[in-house]
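A student in our group prepared the protein record below, which I am reviewing. Here is the record exactly as it was handed to me.
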Amino acid sequence: MKQIEFNAIILAAGKGTRMRSALPKVLHEIAGQPMLGYAVKAAMSAGAKTIFLVTSPEQDNVRAYADGLGCEIVHCLQEQQNGTGDAVRAALPVLPAGERVLVMFGDTPLMRAQVLQSLASCAEDIAVLGFEPQDAAAYGRIILDDNGAPQAIVEYKDADAATRAIGLCNGGAMGLSQNALADLLPKLSNDNAQGEYYLPDLVSLGVQSGRSSALIMADTQDTLGVDGRAGQAKAEKLMQQRLRAGFLDAGVAMQDPDSVFLSFDTQIAGDVTLEPHVKINPGVSIGAGTVIKSFSHLEGVVIGARAQIGPYARLRPGTIVEDEVKIGNFVETKKAHIGFGAKVSHLSYIGDAELGPEVNIGAGTITCNYDGFHKHITKIGAGAFVGSNSSLVAPVSIGAGAYLGSGTTLTNDVPDNALVVTRAPERVIEKWGTKFRNKNKGSE
């Protein structure tokens, strides 16, 4: 298929009333990314030169998010929501002349780039996206001529019984020549059941004026639009299935894939094992041979090779875990760099810290990094041993090879290879228990 230069119009002005949220619909997330992010990235991957984003005037947060996606965005305002045709009109005055146009929606997170590329590269004046769901429900129906070319799209509310019986449905996205769009868009009428300007009416207008049309078929998932919370949950489930399948094919082991949740940007090397009930939020990279044990939660974390994480570990943003590190059960880390082969085996909090290679952190150790106003850093040198139930009051440094006795509360720096013990001297008072019980029994 010949690659044709094109621009993409993404319709994102919908308020998403059925989401029951103050957040615009296209900013609701699927696998950790706003739906609009998927639409923009799919269009750019398909080869779009520029994104013409149609939003409503009050959607400053939508425009701000789009501007942060790293591509050329032209903002177009739809002053009132009068249908999809009216939305495209907002972009028409700023479209470059003579270049093909792709029109798509910002709430279709499962749309693949190759489908959009097929629409954009089609030689016909109007290319329509079609799909055949098991339940056609209230989708618009595509009517074909004897040669299999679309001659009209009829919205469900405007369709008669015979038209509703058609199983071929409108997938929403369209590819058009700029000339056809500029000629036909002003001719749209709102004489229909909803009193709106329907973009799909361009098909019948185009055919009547002698313009060519074509049908591009897509999978049902590609066309899935999210209208409410149930639709969001459905899209999340399908996206998770897609992400899991990709990693399974790449050699990632999952004992129970349905219980593992991934993010849009998750990076996992081959031969990694994800045990059941692992949650991976955005910004996570995992090196080869690492095992993430059950009920662990990762976000904004870089993990090296052959590490062991969990079970029940929580690794928060800014954590860097080098090769062969062990992070055990009920350990929480935040903004911590943990060196090669270090062990934080259980029941500890390591935040704003730098741990050298082969450091051992005993159970119940915490870095006291926050003084109520500022965060402070704890530095622990290579091979140091921190005994159980220790509190490291930052800012503080522990030298290489140093030892902290269990129960230490550390407030000063420790030289290399030193031993620190802050426990009170142990006292044994013979028969104290007997005397105490006898005294209290006598007072009853």
